């Protein structure tokens, strides 16, 4: 299995001199199995260049899994050229949105309405299927199995586990470990904490011993104090996840758009100098990083 | 057969009170800073609401892999934003009788109410109404015809004649109600909404959904009027397309042509144009039906 990080930025693409090293494109992860099956997680702006490369060998057959439909995870889709070309086969998977009562196709069609984009969804010429996933429902893509788990974010967000030939990979999408809505002195505090712990245990069990995890780490612990409930993780939450699930390697991703290359290096050094880190190898996700499993 | 105003009040008095919890949820959720703890407490203090929220979150609609067993659990699992929306929807659809002897087709009633709710919400979205307020448009659409249910439930024999008159003479139901009963469903619907102490603009949107003569129309009233007409228009156009029903076609055209000037101005297009961007309406309604299926509260 080869994993290629095509976009590692959160919120909005930030090209420029300050983001040359780690990259400015928003979330997109390309996974190629040993048999050549192509799985793409999220369609942030990083998917554009991937599409251009895939066009070199037609027809393109791939499966795109969307963690959630916030802009930075779908904004590259209208620029994914394989969608426009007859003969390509593209299966798109994601969650139905029960709050706005919309499925993926509706959301993407609205993204491509004339007032936002010159070509409508109905004019995409590839063979496209839209599939609403249920939590825990495993999807077979060639030799790989992709399983979604619902994890906390302001909208329903699927973390995806990809397994193939004994290799296991997990991407959180956007994830903030749930917070207790009660104060320690409130009556409901203990019960709520029990539910949070139970939910975290489900995630831990789901990703136990996974080889590589790419995890949302938009904020530092200092920044997080004023960003609680915004739906993103910190280095601490990633480290805790890695420790609990005995993760081999974890990449910190979804870098805040304000973060420069220098800041990312500095923060990484500070985090790595902490005592009591688990045996997991930690890296900063970098656009173009290729991970071979 | 005309009914007295006292009878009308009597009917309204007999309908169950809209629970306090529903007011509190509507009030809480209009604030962007709605506290998760407060919302959970309101839901938990109302056993019926709790059951409905859990039933919906556990339905195939959400497709969760674990069973959600408490309101707190639902918040941890699917998030407070989702539960907020679920609570509004289930809270507002629970207080109505499910059957009647008047022959009012409840499935069609809900389908139409849902269509108006969904269209009103889409119109609100299109007009740049804030996400927080869009739920009010959905609720107003859902409740706009609620007076019909009351008539069908409390004066079934009289209402059966009203329904027949509308059918035979091919006149709109609210006119048949006015002619035979002296009141129409928008009036009694507004009285119920008053009893339930719903927000003022929601009450006037129910009262005005057939008249649209108020001096100062709120965007909500205009949206409900327009959404109701659009739903009727679309239904008639679908009928005309299905079986070449020329009468349906001419009624649809009449509806479009007789849209009041202020509604037309607010809408910005004729109804035929509105229908173009509502092409996925059926799909939207199918999804919204999951909420309505819960209205028996079992």
UniProtKB/TrEMBL annotation, chain A:
InterPro entries on file: Metallo-B-lactamas, RibonucZ/Hydroxyglut_hydro
Xref: PANTHER family: HYDROLASE C777.06C-RELATED-RELATED, SLL1036 PROTEIN
Organism: Alkalimarinus sediminis
Gene3D superfamilies associated with the record: Ribonuclease Z/Hydroxyacylglutathione hydrolase-like (3.60.15.10)
Residues that span the membrane, as ranges: none
Any Pfam family the entry gives: Lactamase_B_2
Superkingdom in the source lineage: Bacteria
Annotated Metallo-beta-lactamase domain residues: 25-216
Protein name: MBL fold metallo-hydrolase
Automatic annotation (TrEMBL), chain B:
InterPro entries: HD/PDEase_dom, HD_domain, HDIG_dom, HDOD, RNase_Y/CdgJ
Pfam family, one: HDOD
Record-annotated HDOD domain positions: 15-212
Annotated transmembrane regions: none
HD domain sequence ranges: 109-233
Gene3D superfamilies (alphabetical): Hypothetical protein af1432 (1.10.3210.10)
Cited PROSITE patterns: HD, HDOD
Domain of life: Bacteria
NCBIfam families to which the protein is assigned, alphabetical: HDIG
Name of the protein in its database record: HDOD domain-containing protein
């Amino acid at each position: 299995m080869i994993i290629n990080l095509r976009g590692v930025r959160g919120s909005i693409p930030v090209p420029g001199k300050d983001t040359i090293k780690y990259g400015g494109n928003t979330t997109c992860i390309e996974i190629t199995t040993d048999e050549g099956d192509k799985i793409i997680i999220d369609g942030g702006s990083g998917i554009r260049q991937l599409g251009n490369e895939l066009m070199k060998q037609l027809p393109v057959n791939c499966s795109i899994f969307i963690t959630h439909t916030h802009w930075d995870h779908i904004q590259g889709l209208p620029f994914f050229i394989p969608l426009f070309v007859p003969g390509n086969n593209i299966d798109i998977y994601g969650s139905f949105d029960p709050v706005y009562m919309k499925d993926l196709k509706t959301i993407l069609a609205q993204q491509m309405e004339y007032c936002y984009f010159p070509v409508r969804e109905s004019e995409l010429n590839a063979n496209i299927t839209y599939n609403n996933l249920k939590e825990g429902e495993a999807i077979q893509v060639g030799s790989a199995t992709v399983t979604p788990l619902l994890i906390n974010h302001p909208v329903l967000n699927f973390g995806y586990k990809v397994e193939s030939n004994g290799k296991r990979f997990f991407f959180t999408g956007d994830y903030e470990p749930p917070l207790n809505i009660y104060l320690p002195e409130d009556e409901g505090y203990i019960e709520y904490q029990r539910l949070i712990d139970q939910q975290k245990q489900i995630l831990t069990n789901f990703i136990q011993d996974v080889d590589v995890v790419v995890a949302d780490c938009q904020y530092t612990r200092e920044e997080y104090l004023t960003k609680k409930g915004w739906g993103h993780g910190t280095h601490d939450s990633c480290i805790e996840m890695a420790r609990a699930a005995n993760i081999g390697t974890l990449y910190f991703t979804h870098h805040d758009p304000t973060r420069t290359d220098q800041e990312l290096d500095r923060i990484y050094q500070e985090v790595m100098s902490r005592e009591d880190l688990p045996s997991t190898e930690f890296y900063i996700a970098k656009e173009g990083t290729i991970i071979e499993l | 057969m005309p009914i007295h105003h006292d009878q009308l009040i009597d009917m309204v008095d007999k309908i169950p009170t809209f629970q306090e919890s529903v007011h509190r949820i509507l009030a809480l959720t209009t604030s962007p800073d709605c506290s998760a703890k407060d919302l959970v407490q309101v839901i938990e203090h109302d056993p019926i609401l709790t059951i409905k929220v859990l039933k919906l979150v556990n339905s195939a609609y959400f497709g969760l892999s674990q069973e959600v067993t408490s309101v707190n659990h639902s918040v941890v699992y699917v998030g407070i934003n989702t539960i907020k929306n679920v609570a509004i929807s289930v809270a507002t659809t629970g207080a109505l009788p499910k059957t009647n002897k008047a022959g009012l087709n409840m499935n069609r009633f809900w389908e139409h109410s849902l269509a108006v709710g969904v269209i009103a919400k889409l119109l609100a979205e299109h007009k740049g109404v804030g996400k927080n307020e869009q739920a009010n448009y959905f609720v107003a659409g859902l409740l706009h015809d609620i007076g019909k249910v009351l008539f069908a439930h409390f004066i079934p024999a009289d209402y059966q004649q009203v329904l027949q008159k509308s059918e035979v003479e091919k006149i709109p139901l609210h006119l048949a109600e006015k002619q035979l009963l002296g009141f129409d469903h928008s009036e009694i619907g507004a009285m119920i909404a008053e009893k339930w102490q719903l927000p003022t603009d929601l009450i006037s949107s129910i009262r005005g959904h057939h008249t649209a003569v108020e001096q100062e129309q709120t965007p909500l009233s205009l949206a409900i009027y327009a959404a109701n007409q659009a739903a009727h228009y679309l239904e008639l156009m679908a009928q005309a397309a299905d079986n070449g029903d020329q009468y349906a076609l001419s009624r649809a055209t009449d509806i479009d042509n007789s849209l009041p000037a202020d509604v037309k101005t607010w809408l910005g297009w004729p109804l035929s144009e509105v229908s173009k961007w509502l092409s996925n309406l059926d799909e939207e309604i199918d999804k919204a039906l999951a909420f309505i299926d819960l209205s028996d509260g079992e």
